Amino acid sequence: MSRAFGVFSAPVATAGARARCVACARRRGAVAAASATRNGPETVRVAVPDGYGGLEDVFSSLTSNRIIFLGSRIDEDVAADTCARLLALEAEGPDEEIKVYVNCTAGTQYCVTAILDTMEYVSCPISTVALGCVAGPPVMLVAAGDKGKRYGMQSSRIILSQPLGGLAGTSIEVKIQAKELNRNAKAQVAFIARYTGQDPDELEAMMARDTYMGVDQAIAFGLLDHAL
Question: How far apart are CA 228 and CA 224, in angstroms?
């Protein structure tokens, strides 16, 4: 900037500078387009008032009200975000309830159990709500809520099923992977048996095939406590 009579004035952009700006904008557009091609259209976040005259992301607003919403496949990123929110909410109010809403049909068992361990680690009371469809390992999250505080929306569906695994590699590697997949299946049965009070052997035999439940069936089975 140049100083003239105590007033700052911005220099006039040259033709070369303007051309460089246009080129940068085009490159940013190309990168965004490539990202959209790889990952699909960018998610549009919904903004809500933050109570202080500004706006915040709707999921951040839910967290500020001690609500965590799981609505996508549970991978490492989702697990890390959820565990961080649980720990932050415990630090903020160790005796205040946390509500976890689950509408999820897939997830890596290791990532789901990371959330489970954190739910059991924090001192806060935790209520869970199933909505839409909850299937596979995420079912454990709904069942892991405090007894008497596990809810299901009236139209939600629960699907008990074995964890899936894509076996590949040499015969020895496939044998090792199959052993770990079997361990994961037994661990899932053990978790659900603990949360529902069902006999592990009967539960393992039942989960050899997909089992579909409505809310009333899930309550009778011990996965949920109340219908909303």
Answer: 11
pLDDT in tens, 65-76: 889 999 889 999
Backbone angles phi, psi at 48, to 5 degrees: -130, 155
- The set of residues, in sequence order, having a beta carbon less than 8 Å from that of 104 and lying 6+ positions away, is 70, 71, 72, 73, 74, 134, 135, 138, 141
| Separate counts of helices (H) and strands (E) for the chain | 8, 12
**b/e 94-114 (16+ beta carbons within 10 angstroms → b):** eeeebbbbbbbbebbbebbbb
Host domain of residue 155: 47-163+208-227
171: in domain: no
The answer to whether position 186 is within a domain reads no
In a domain, 34, yes or no: no
Task: Please state the φ and ψ torsions of residue 86, each to the nearest 5 degrees.
Answer: -60, -45
For residue 65, what are its two tokens?
């009200």
Position 41 pLDDT exceeds 50 = no
Write the pLDDT tens digit of every residue in 9-38.
Answer: 334 444 554 444 444 444 434 433 333 333
